[in-house]
Design brief:
178 residues, mainly alpha, 6 helices
């Protein structure tokens, strides 16, 4: 998961930078820049929402596994800590990206000054880079916790199980009757 997340994050940031480069270099017409900018803003919001979904889903799974296997409740608290670490940055990135996109439409329609759109584009870039970096670090920690929980569950199952296969651990007289 962390590798895929990092790849998608870098790709989206590169799309964002390409959009900015095309605007400053006057490579695209205004209509194409608006479409491309809208597309990139949509990708950013979708990625940030996927991160929300990942933490919600993994949190529910961890709570279920902890309850079913009587594990330490600190695992559940860690899932809450993960969310608290990355959600504020995620929300800020989504908000600033949406404002930048709306202001871009306003600038194209002549309803907002271009310089305000540019300021929010730069703020959106900074907010997204920060958010994706924080989210990447938290995703790595979360995945590590999931692996540790799985190892703990497997250890519990191995301790409760006989090492010998069931057929060899039965009394000899039962084996003969088969």
């Amino acid at each position: 998961m962390p590798t895929v997340f990092a790849s998608v994050s870098v790709t989206i940031i590169l799309f964002f930078l390409a959009t900015m480069g095309m605007a400053y270099g006057h490579v695209l017409s205004l209509n194409l820049h608006m479409l491309w900018g809208f597309f990139v803003a949509l990708l950013i919001v979708l990625l940030q929402c996927l991160i929300f979904g990942f933490f919600i889903g993994s949190g529910k799974s961890i709570k279920r596994v902890v309850a079913e296997n009587n594990l330490d409740l600190s695992w559940v608290q860690k899932t809450k800590d993960y969310k608290n670490q990355c959600y504020p940055a995620l929300m800020l990135a989504i908000l600033v990206s949406a404002i930048a996109a709306v202001l871009g439409g306003g600038a194209a329609a002549g309803m907002a000054p271009v310089w305000i759109h540019e300021i929010f584009v730069w703020l959106a870039l900074a907010a997204n880079v920060r958010s994706l970096w924080i989210s990447y670090q938290v995703v790595v920690e979360n995945v590590r916790a999931i692996h540790l929980i799985n190892a703990e569950v497997q250890t519990q199952k191995n301790e409760g199980r006989s090492i010998l296969p069931p057929a060899l651990s039965e009394p000899a007289e039962l084996m003969v009757r088969r």
